[in-house]
Write a structure and sequence with these properties.
single chain, 18% helix, globular
């Protein structure tokens, strides 16, 4: 459970990372550091790198546990996605992979988009995952691409100066699970973070499990969700990201830009994987 929430916090970052309108010849890149906390105590560091041009995007996230999480579990996580930005601004993923390494186990899940039928297919440690009918996976985004889509919506609202709320539903397939993400972007308000007031928006994400879940797992996802505070300007900097599963609050707090802050940003400490367990 702790490892899954730790990874969920990583993915949540992308929903509100800085926007990147850029030309194909001049990609815009952001590399940001966050501290993961449980009940207010530091448990890990998370770095997110986003590169965008006019027609391509790439997202890479790396996380490393610290303190007791490191001592007992040795959690390291890596996620990556890339794809195409269409003329109307929608995203078409080309590849998605998430991998992890702990003291006693390691593994990966990936989504292939180059299938003859055009329907995304999941693979766990190289073996195909068959948990649902193919039609349920059609037209879905991977989690990082889905959250990139949300980020672009938040950036558009800020660029337009809109104070109106917004809602969207994004179909997601992560290689094993199929769910819809119901997103609501609230109007701007004043939020206090890091000891000062900010003009910010609160983004809430609710999950609707649709395939690949057990009954208990589905109930857990329905009760959970994300709450994100993001500054309401063209950089759309996340101030705080919260996940509460009912037994304790996990959150992420923004530290600064990698290479500028004193804390080193974690790199990919997962690969190469050796003998991943099913």
């Amino acid at each position: 459970m702790a490892a899954r929430v730790f990874a969920a916090l990583m993915a949540a970052l992308v929903a509100v990372a800085p926007p990147a309108p850029a030309s194909a010849a001049a990609p815009r890149e952001q590399h940001l550091l966050y501290q993961a906390r449980f009940l207010g105590l530091p448990v890990g560091d998370v770095a997110v790198r986003i590169v965008e041009t006019a027609d391509r995007y790439q997202v890479t996230l790396n996380a490393r546990a610290t303190g007791l999480f490191w001592a007992f579990r040795g959690i390291r996580a890596h996620r990556a996605a890339n794809g195409r930005i269409t003329e109307d601004g929608s995203l078409e993923p080309a590849a998605y992979r998430r991998a992890y390494r702990e003291w006693d186990k390691q593994g990966e899940v990936r989504v292939a988009y180059d299938r003859p039928d055009g329907i995304p297919k999941g693979f766990k440690n190289g073996e195909p995952v068959d948990r649902m009918e193919p039609d349920l996976r059609a037209g879905t985004l991977d989690p990082l691409s889905a959250l990139m889509s949300v980020r672009r919506r938040v950036a558009t609202l800020s660029d337009q100066g809109s104070a109106d709320p917004a809602e969207m539903v994004v179909p997601v397939f992560d290689g094993k699970l199929r769910y819809d993400a119901h997103i609501r972007v609230a109007p701007p308000e004043t939020i206090t973070a890091a000891g000062q007031p900010w003009r910010a928006r609160v983004v809430t994400v609710r999950f609707e499990p649709l395939g690949g879940f057990s009954e208990n797992h589905a109930a857990e996802w329905r009760e959970g969700g994300l709450r994100i505070a993001v500054t309401d300007h063209d950089l759309a900097i996340p101030l705080r990201i919260e996940v509460d599963q009912g037994w304790g609050l996990f959150d992420l707090v923004y530290v600064g830009r990698c290479g500028v802050v004193e804390t080193p940003c974690p790199d990919n400490e997962v690969d190469p994987l050796e003998h991943p367990k099913p």
